[in-house]
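Backbone-to-sequence.
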């Protein structure tokens, strides 16, 4: 199995990060990509990925963090993206639910990430929450060849169809196991060759561990929930989502 999106540099893993990776491997999660949230986190993610086989990372600045970004951060992100451990830019995008950074600044930095992706030929991990229309507008203005994933997807069907039309991958997290999850149609709509799974750990632990700290070893629960919604075998979902993640990240 391949956890396509987690945050292993998070402070909640500070005491047992090595054990977390060992448990993931024991659970059959053999490959992970740890996703960065800002420049300091990008540096930490590279260090972690460099020290562990079958672990890779992204570099970039989360929409929550762009208000604290410094002018030189974009140049540093570009430099770090050349590292062999780095397989994507992000996560980047728009979050109009929390609005932790001004929306205009979020849009500016999302555009910067997309431009950089076109320059460096790297895929982009896209965060979107209650910003479907602006996400579509900015992606529509970007170079069509940029490969994107709509991560932890909870958006509307219009955004889903738009993403699929432009070749995006779509990733689902432990949210699909929650009783109030209303995106069943979206899970079923994504083609097999465009579907990814993730934990987004330490956030969004799936049932039966909801409310606890999440970690990559819990990915099988996400896969089981996705498989149930799609009417497929969990082992098949595990296999093709791993192949898809490797293709998306160029691994």
């Amino acid at each position: 199995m391949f956890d396509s999106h987690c945050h292993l540099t998070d402070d909640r893993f500070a005491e047992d990060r090595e054990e977390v990776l060992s448990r993931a491997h024991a659970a059959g999660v053999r490959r992970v990509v740890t996703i960065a949230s800002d420049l300091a986190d990008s540096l930490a993610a590279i260090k972690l990925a460099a020290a562990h086989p079958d672990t890779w990372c992204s570099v970039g600045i989360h929409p929550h963090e762009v208000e604290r970004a410094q002018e030189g951060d974009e140049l540093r992100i570009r430099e770090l993206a050349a590292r062999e451990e780095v397989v994507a830019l992000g996560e980047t995008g728009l979050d109009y639910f929390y609005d932790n950074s001004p929306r205009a600044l979020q849009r500016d930095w999302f555009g910067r990430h997309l431009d950089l992706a076109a320059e460096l030929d790297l895929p982009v991990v896209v965060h979107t929450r209650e910003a479907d229309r602006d996400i579509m507008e900015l992606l529509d203005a970007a170079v069509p060849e940029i490969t994107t994933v709509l991560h932890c997807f909870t958006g509307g069907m219009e955004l889903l169809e738009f993403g699929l039309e432009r070749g995006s991958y779509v990733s689902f997290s432990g949210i699909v196991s929650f009783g109030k999850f209303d995106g069943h149609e979206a899970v079923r709509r994504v083609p097999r060759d465009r579907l990814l799974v993730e934990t987004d750990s330490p956030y969004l632990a799936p049932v039966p561990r909801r409310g606890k700290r999440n970690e990559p070893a819990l990915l099988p629960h996400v896969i089981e929930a996705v498989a149930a919604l799609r009417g497929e075998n969990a082992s098949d979902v595990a296999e093709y989502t791993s192949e898809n993640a490797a293709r998306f990240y160029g691994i």
